[in-house]
Design a protein that fits this description.
alpha+beta, N-terminal domain of TfIIb, GMP Synthetase, Chain A, domain 3, 2 domains, three-stranded antiparallel sheet, three-stranded mixed sheet, globular, OsmC/Ohr_fam, OsmC/Ohrsf
Length: 139
């Protein structure tokens, strides 16, 4: 269910110059990076790229969601990490992305960890926003 504008708690604003071969900066000056396509896509690979930025945001958001569901379940996720692998490739419409989310939860057995990851995928705003549009694999 979409949120209403009156329910927005925070808005990030970023502006890109020259697309995948330029610069991206936030309005508050906290992020200002050179972006270049990776070498695999014909770029120099000297800067970061949109897929890396998406992976960083998704992994951080998913880690937060994991903490929320762990607290609800009374599970300990201390020392856990979440890794997002974001791939880009050609599809029928031009290009699309795929994501693999993997979590390492050292204080949980395999079944509990899997359940927590699946629950986090249901509440993570990035997962909700991409559901049905990209393939997301959980591990």
């Amino acid at each position: 269910m979409p949120i209403q504008q009156s329910d927005v708690l925070y808005t990030a604003v970023a502006t890109a110059e020259n697309g995948r071969d330029g610069r991206v900066a936030t309005d508050d000056g906290r992020l200002d990076v050179v972006v270049n396509p990776p070498e695999e896509m014909g770029g120099s690979g000297t800067g970061t790229n949109p897929e890396q930025l998406f992976a960083a945001g998704y992994s951080a958001c998913f880690q937060g969601a994991l903490g929320v569901v762990a607290r609800r379940a009374g599970a300990d996720v201390t020392g856990s990490t979440v890794t997002a692998k974001v791939g880009i490739g050609k599809n029928a419409d031009g290009f699309g992305i795929v994501v693999e989310i993997s979590a390492h939860i050292p204080k949980a057995d395999a079944a509990t960890a899997q359940a927590l990851v699946e629950q986090a995928h249901q509440v993570c705003p990035y997962s909700k926003a991409t559901r049905g549009d990209i393939t997301v694999t959980l591990a």
